[in-house]
Specification:
single chain, Growth Hormone, Chain: A, globular
Length: 445
Amino acid sequence: MANTDFLKEYNIWNVIGASSAGTMIEWYDFYIFGSLAPIMSGLFFPKENPTAALLSTLAIFATGFAVRPFGAVFFGRIGDVVGRKYAFLVTLLIMGGATTMIGLLPTYDTIGLWAPFFLVILRLTQGLALGGEYGGAATYIAEHSPDDKRGFYTSFIQTTATLGLFVSLGVILSVRSTLGEDAFREWGWRIPFLLSIVLVVFSYIIRMRLQESPLFTRMKAAGKTSKHPLKDAFSSKENWKIMAKALFGATAGQGVVWYTGQFYALYYLQTVLKIHFMTANFIVAVALLLATPFFVVFGALSDRIGRKKIIMSGCLIAAVSYVPIYMGMNFFAADPNNPNSVMLSVLVFIQVIFVTMVYGPIAAYLVELFPTKIRYTSMSLPYHIGNGVFGGLVPLIGVALVAQTGNIYAGLLYPIGIALMTFVVGMIYTKDTSNVKLWDELDTK
């Protein structure tokens, strides 16, 4: 494995910093919509039925997740043919433009049903962009990393989703506390969306200075890259088997654990326990801030003991712990006007620890499953179906089940079931990948 000298030409921390900054901004763009869903539901839909309006807004939120696999395939092909850097520069600009447009969009009172229509279009655009972004950034960092530290280095890109959510909550809380609740609900909610354009320009300038992935560059120079990555990825039964195992034995459970521990927890605090918007967001923001370093802890640990053990453990522990955790949240929020914020933050923090277990090693795991010539295309699809479809539906299904049954714990049935399925499939059918040597591909004929 002769990759050490070549990698000395690259500053891995510059690569991680530039890639992570851009990806965090894309997650910020994607999640401010979800964070503001309870407010936006009254602005883009008729106000006569608040529950229906919220569910409609969550459905639009979910469309952004559902379309992510298509973005993964489209931009994955570009990344495998043209290069990783070019693909995630384009996705950054698309995401920033769509997010800014949401901040300028007229409401239902102004343009009627055109408001939710245009909101859906912009949300779909966001989903397509994010579908291409994550695979590019994760692959880019992994292909700059030595084989024995890939879990550690790629874990920094894993922090960006949670940091993006944390930043979105922080911006929302700051703007709301500055303007006051009435002004924020009337027009101030637009500011977090409009700030995106500043963040995107800053990140684009940084990313432009990056070089292409060294592994991809060498593979391309050697003529070993794919001219038809979609055909190579999707005409192979063996590759389909790998993608299916990655989806049902890793990313589906990882996705529901991620969105339960962060987004569903937030919605549960606001819509079920009726805790004030500011208090609920503050509770989740504190938990995210305290738990974020553990992405790196578990990513680094996966280099030593393997990716599979950590991911499977996270799925199982989360599945058996959710009901008692949410019972505890209900207990400590018995008085929604005076909840025990410290204990609620602790209970959300525990859920985010589960998130760090399943998510910290997943980038390295997925990268190591597929060869360089079709890596961007192949890894992005199971990741975004697992996160975008299985995970992205958690808030919608959870809130809908609670509303339909009247049982405040009914919303947990979906993530528990998917996490247990992933644990069983993963334990039986998947293998660990931490011993894979990506750079050995250069020496194969």
